[in-house]
Amino acid sequence: LMSGKLETAGLIDQWEKNPVHVSQVKVEGDLGDIQTAKIEIHTVKPVTFDPINLDLHGVSLQQFLVVLRRPHPSPALGELGTFNGVATIEESNHIRIRGDYSGLEFIFSNRGSRETQTISLLSGEAEFRNNRWRVKIDRIRPLEGVFDGVIQMQADQNWRDLEIETKLEEMSLSPNVQALMTGGGSLGAFSGKMKAELVGGELKSLEGLLKSDRILVEGMHIERPKFAFSTQKTNYYLDVNAQEMEIDPTSTPGNFLSKVLVLPANSARFLFKNTSVRFQTRHLKDLQWTSFQSLIPQGVIRSQGGWSEDGDLFGQISVRVQKKE
Fold first, then answer.
1. Paired sense of beta strands 94-102 and 299-307, if any
2. Which of 162, 167, 243 is nearest to 210 (CA)?
3. pLDDT at res. 41
4. 77 with 104: CB under 8 angstroms?
5. CA 9 – CA 19 distance, rounded (Å)
6. Could you report the per-residue pLDDT of 290-317, keeping only the tens digit for each?
7. Between these two residues, 207 and 69, which has the higher pLDDT value?
8. pLDDT at 284 over 80
9. Which residues does residue 21 pair with via DSSP β-bridges, in sequence order?
């Protein structure tokens, strides 16, 4: 439903140059509620007008995509939520938007189970100018979990070429999502900086550093881990360092370690200290680890290996036993 009042005056045979005054414009429907007090059009052809201020209430992103005949953006997203705020159309190729976005759902899945992380509030501003988007998100409030940080993005008009930078003071997912992704454990709170670039919808580079106080995953207790991301041409690297790591011998990783290590006497867990490893993937199709090294009670353990594109596991493990004095 659309309503408003339109007025114009001038010669009929010169209608393209006649000024048009539109007032009390209101659009209501599945898309949401969009209002503006006035629209002042100087000429119709070419289109010239004064800046237009729009009040947006309950605007549905899903319905907006329907209007644009665009598909749902990703299977990793559930409900797309609604937007409340203001938009200013400066020119046909210059739009500024500021407001609050709520109800966005991220879907996490693992081993056939699913959990949803809902964002109850996301505040920020966006500008579209010269066929480029610039977005700054300065406030995010998850329904469960914590997010204290800033996200900045630049993209082309179709969001196929994208640069995104994130600075995190603290971020944690909902407890249910953490338990799902860690086999009943937890990921703790992360801090750090990340930067990613996509070209043509494909990941081109990923750089940054994330830190956590403690991670519990699949029977592994990891203390103060650091994750450094880097890219060289088509290779993506993840360097992981941890001060201390304990592994339950009854867990899946523990069962594997039991085949190559002997649990020390009077120890209930495998203990690793000053652990470091580099993971490498090419086009996200295979995975290798190199330079794994860690101190264990018996001495030093080293390893390298990986998974091929066909899913075949390969590698080697060596242990240098420290002689007792």
1. unpaired
2. 167
3. 93
4. yes
5. 7
6. 889 999 988 999 999 998 878 788 889 8
7. 207
8. no
9. 7, 40
Query: Encoding tokens for residue 13?
Result: 């045979």
Long-range contacts of 9-17 (CB under 8 A, 24+ apart): 15/44, 16/43, 16/44, 16/45, 17/43, 17/44, 17/45
Burial (Cβ within 10 Å: 0-12, 13-18, ≥19) of residue 303: middle
Longest CA pairwise span in the chain (Å) = 105
Strand 162-172 relative to strand 94-102: parallel, antiparallel, unpaired? unpaired
Torsion angle of the four alpha carbons 306, 308, 313, 318, in this order, in degrees rounded to the nearest 10:
-30
The closest alpha carbon to 181, from 143, 145, 217, 228, belongs to 217
pLDDT in tens, 31-68: 999 999 999 999 988 889 999 999 999 999 999 888 87
* Inter-residue contact 72 to 56 (CB < 8 Å): no
Q: Copy the structure tokens of residue 183.
A: 């086999």
Q: Which residue has the tokens 């809902």?
A: 118
pLDDT score of 6 more than 80: yes
Are the beta carbons of 225 and 187 closer than 8 angstroms? no
Residue 99 pLDDT more than 90? yes
C-alpha–C-alpha distance, residues 264 and 151, integer Å:
47
Cβ atoms of 207 and 195 within 8 Å: the answer is yes
**CA-based nearest residue to 86, from 129, 57, 128, 119:** 57
Nearest to 151, CA basis, from 132, 137, 130: 137
Asked whether residue 161 carries a pLDDT value surpassing 70, the answer given is yes
Report residue 10: phi and psi, to 5°: 145, -175
Measured CA to CA, the distance from residue 114 to residue 191 in angstroms comes to 25
pLDDT greater than 80 at residue 13: yes
Q: Which two tokens stand for residue 185?
A: 């454990």
Stated pTM of the model: 0.83
Q: Which tokens sit at 273?
A: 């200290």
